[in-house]
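Objective 1b: paired records.
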Amino acid sequence: MGAAKTRQTGAPRSRNARGEGEKLRGEIIDAAVKVLSALGPEDPFSLRSVAKMAKIAAPSVYIHFADRNVLLLAVLEELFAEQVAIRAAAETDAANAGGGAWERLLARSVASVRFGLEHPGHYKVLFEGRVVPRLNDPRIASFGRPLLVRSIELIREIPSQLGRVSDDPERLSLLLWSGLHGVVSLRINKPTLDWPSATELAEQITRTIIQPKVRKQRSAPRQWP
C-alpha cells in the first residue's frame, strides 16, 4: 500500500508523466497521511498543506479531490483497506500452519499491534482522532466495521473456559480492540517505560479476554519488540 512507503523529501518532485494520474492520487493520499499524523487535535488541516507536503501545486490536489472531506474519506478508505489485508494475511498464515479460530484470532491481534508500532503515524490517523473530528460524513462508521465483524466471527467459533467476562462475541471483540489499542497507544506515547515484548502483551490480552479452551502454547515463537 502506497501510504506505508517512505519517500525522500527535500528536492522538488518531478512532474508526473501523462497517464500517471493514479500514481499522483496515491502520492497525495500519502502526503495527507503524513500531514495528519503530525497534527494535534485542534490543528487545522488543509489541501494546501497536503500539496506542500507532496511538493505539487495546490490545483493538482483539487483535480483528484474536490474538497477536504473527499480527501479525508480517501485516506480512511485506503488505510482501513490496508488493515483488512494485513490482518487477513496473518489469519491465512495461521490457518495454513494448521491453526483454528483461536490461532487465527491471535495472529490478527499480533499483526494489528505490530503494524501500529511499525507505522505509528498511520495508527494515529486511523485510531487517535486525526481524521474523524475533521470529517463530517456518515460513511466514516463503515470503514472499521469489517475488522470488528471478523473478530466477532472468530470469537463465536472459539470454545471458552469458564470465567469469560461476557458471553457476547461483539462485546468481547470491543474489549479486545480496546486492550490492543492500549498496547499500541501507550507504547507510542510512553516510549520511555520499560515495556514487555509487544507480542507477549498482545497474546496475554487476547488470551485473558477470550479465555480459549485450548492447550496453552506460544503461538508466535518469534519475539517482537
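Objective 1b, second protein:
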Amino acid sequence: MEQGSKTMLAMHTLLLCADVQFLGATRGVLNQLQVTPKIVGGCDEALALIQAHEFEAIIVDWREINSLGDFLWAVRRSKLNQDCVLVAIVRDLLDLRQAFAAGVHFLIHKPASVVQIERCLRAAYFASVVRRRKQHREQVTIQASVSTHAQPYAEVTIANLSEGGAGLRLDAERGARLSVGEEADLRFTLPGTNDMLHTTARVMWTAAGCAGVRFSYVPDAERLRLEHWLTACVERSLARLCERVAAVCA
C-alpha cells in the first residue's frame, strides 16, 4: 500500500467476483478505504441488485458473466445505474479487448497487486464524483446581484447552483426583472468561502417570481473554484447516501 494514502472513499459498490484469493486482497483495500461493497458470486444476483439499488461503481470479474451483452444492456438500461462507473477484472488480452469494446471505464488485471487495486478504486471514485458534479444541482440560498443591458443592478436569490447554471428567485419589490434570451452579469459568493464569482449568463426560462440561467462565461480561475466547491458538495452527498444505505442494510 502506498504510504501517506489516507483518503476514505464514500462509494456504494457492487462487486461480482467468486475468486476467493482476489476477494481476500480486495477486501483488505476496501476495508482500509472504508468502502463496504455488496459482494455477490453470480450474475443473476448482481442483476437483481442493479435493478433495486444505486451504485457508484460496479466491479465485475469478466469470467463470471454468463452473457456479456445481456449484462451490460441491463446495467445501461437500469434507471439507477445507467451512468455508474464500470470496472472489469480481466485475465488476458482477450478479456481486455472485450472490456474496452464494451465501454468499461477501468481495468484491474489479475493477478492484481494491492497498490493496483487501490489506484483503480480511487480512479473509479473520482470519476464518479466528476460525473455527479456535472449533473449535481445544489440547493442553496445565496444573495446575488444581477445586471443586464436594461437593468443596471438588481438583487436576486440563487435557489440552486450547478456547474452550468443557476435557478434564481426574483423579488419584484427589489426591482429584479429578467427576460428569456437576455444576457446577465451575475455576481455572488460561494457559501462557506470568500470566493466571489463573476459570471455571464443567458436567461433560459422565466416563471412567476423565478428564472433559470445558463452560464455562458465563467473565468477559468473562478470556474475552478466553483468545481472544487461542487465537488465537496457531491462528496458530502455521497457520504450521506452511504450512511443511509448502511442504516437500511444494518
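DSSP finds six helices and eleven strands in the chain. Residues 183 and 219 are 16 Å apart (CA to CA).
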